Amino acid sequence: MEAKESKINKTKYAYEVIRTRILDGTYTQGQRIIIDQIAKEVGSSHIPVREALRQLEADQLIKYEQNIGAVVRSINDNVYKESLELLAVLEGYATAESTPYITPDDLQELTSINEQLREVVQNYELQRFGELNQMFHMAIYKRCPNQLLVQDITKVWQRLDSVRNGGISFYPSRAPQSITEHETLLSMIAENKPPYEIEAFARGHKLNTLHAFKNKS
């Protein structure tokens, strides 16, 4: 039993090491993942590293190429657009599902985060904007009764983060509009608007990001 738990822990550690390096840009798109090197770093055999790579392949962060092995996945504009379309559906539903469980304290927290977003936009802190924007939406999804849905959303977010680190940039003119849409969404939640209206608005909120990307505005 102890040996099995140790293997699981080493797999998890290897997974986190590789995933973090992909998402922070240490490993660039197309870069080969050298199993022997990772195994030495995490102090394990090759088996936990290979299992970690299988998980990362399922997350669509790496892929296997013939005669090369595991490489960091390159995601083109089309996959980026498809990921945003998928998020529009998932986040719209997750927001609607979360709404009945959001408390006045939650609304106060969300309002505070949105005000911080306004401040960082004024200071042109683009990376911080992305962090706070995800914090805003996760503050909603923590009330979602379907946590498998939230896990799927998080995985797509991580994939998009790797794309941004690979060169797809932020579109500044979208930021103020996004903050205003957050305010509208919070008003709808506070006013107990029907779930289908909230779902449609949240879906449109994400699709507006897609439209901004297409227009490169």
TrEMBL record:
One Pfam family here: GntR
Keyword Transcription among UniProt keywords: yes
Entry keyword annotation includes Transcription regulation: yes
Keywords per UniProt: DNA-binding, Transcription, Transcription regulation
Molecular-function annotations in GO: DNA binding; DNA-binding transcription factor activity
Extent of the signal sequence: none
Gene3D superfamilies cross-referenced by the UniProt entry: GntR ligand-binding domain-like, Winged helix-like DNA-binding domain superfamily/Winged helix DNA-binding domain
Domain annotation HTH gntR-type: ranges: 8-75
Record protein name field: GntR family transcriptional regulator
